[in-house]
Specification:
globular; alpha+beta; CRISPR-assoc_RAMP_Cmr4; 12-stranded mixed β-sheet; 24% helix; Type III-B CRISPR module RAMP protein Cmr4; 304 residues; two-stranded antiparallel sheet; antiviral defense
Length: 304
């Protein structure tokens, strides 16, 4: 208890797999790329919590979004219970879910005999911090946490390799059940100390806007966009705050928040998720837009 406030929290792991290239946009930049992806303070790609929370809210709200693009809390009180009230509501209420950032963990990269997932020491350390927080809050690790733990900790007897002209250690990791079903994951993880290997993995598209009558690029209609490649992994989490008093939460919700697995099952219905096992669910989500050109689709795994 801190200052009379009981710290009653539970955690859920999020592992997001990029089914297509992603553009979680950072707005117009000043570098060689006009529209870059979001990056953290050291320049590594990341999906900030606000960019992740928005699509989660939209998925929850479904057809209960009003003309101003906000959730009608009277129609979908569970969404406003989870994520908080909307700006135009008379009373402000915090949601019981705290959505963490989704840092990049790894990207697919070519090696001379195939491909591997590629990461760097910094990204592993950053992800390990999230892993430690959630596992300490819960005081146990379930199926999804175990798979994330393999990615983070099974780094012994690595083989020296060269990836994008930089040195890396290549590890063959066994024991995956969920991740082994994903197309661009084969149990190989290369770890480098050089940030440039991540920079070289990002994709830059040059796009244009044509006049449909003349088929000529319109003035100012040529620009470049940065993308995180398909097959990349992001690892983050959700923190369930049992202390939150939210007017949109019914009496049953208080019982759910103190039980990880019951709350996880409840979220699976909210997010229209498929059951993978008793403690893992999955669903698809669009992040960063660009759906009309086949971008922005992730497969989200939610569990303990």
């Amino acid at each position: 208890m801190v200052n009379g406030y009981s710290l009653l929290m539970k955690g859920l792991f999020i592992l997001a797999y990029a089914v297509t290239n992603l553009h979680p946009g950072a707005g117009r930049g000043y570098g060689i790329v006009d529209l870059s992806v979001q990056k953290d303070q050291l320049g590594y790609p990341i999906i900030y919590s606000s960019a992740f929370k928005g699509p989660l809210k939209a998925l929850c709200a479904s057809d209960a979004i009003n003309d101003s693009g906000r959730i009608n809390c009277k129609r979908k009180p569970e969404c406003c219970c989870l994520f908080g009230s909307e700006p135009d509501d008379e009373e402000s209420s915090k949601g019981i879910l705290n959505v963490l950032d989704l840092p990049l963990f790894s990207v697919p990269a070519p090696i001379h005999d195939g491909f591997t997932q590629l990461s760097v020491d910094y990204l592993i350390s950053r992800t390990n911090n999230i892993f430690n927080i959630i596992s300490e809050i819960n005081e146990y690790v379930g199926s999804l946490g175990n798979e994330i733990s393999l990615l983070l900790h099974e780094h012994e007897s690595g083989e020296e390799r060269e990836v994008y002209n930089s040195k890396a250690k290549l590890f063959n990791i066994k024991g995956f059940r969920i991740l082994s079903s994903l197309p661009l994951f084969n149990g190989k993880l290369a770890v480098s100390k050089d940030k440039k290997v991540i920079d070289k993995s990002l994709i830059i598209y040059t796009r244009n806007r044509l006049n449909l009558l003349t088929k000529v690029v319109t003035e100012g209609g040529l620009w470049s966009e940065e993308y995180i490649p398909m097959g990349s992994f992001f690892i983050g989490g959700l923190i369930i705050d049992e202390n939150v008093q939210n007017n949109f939460c019914g009496g049953e919700m208080g019982k759910l928040t103190c039980d990880n697995l019951r709350f996880l099952s409840y979220l699976s219905k909210v997010f229209h998720a498929s059951k993978i096992s008793d403690d893992i669910y999955s669903f698809y989500l669009n992040i960063g837009g660009k759906e009309s050109i086949g971008k922005g689709l992730v497969k989200v795994f939610l569990g303990v």
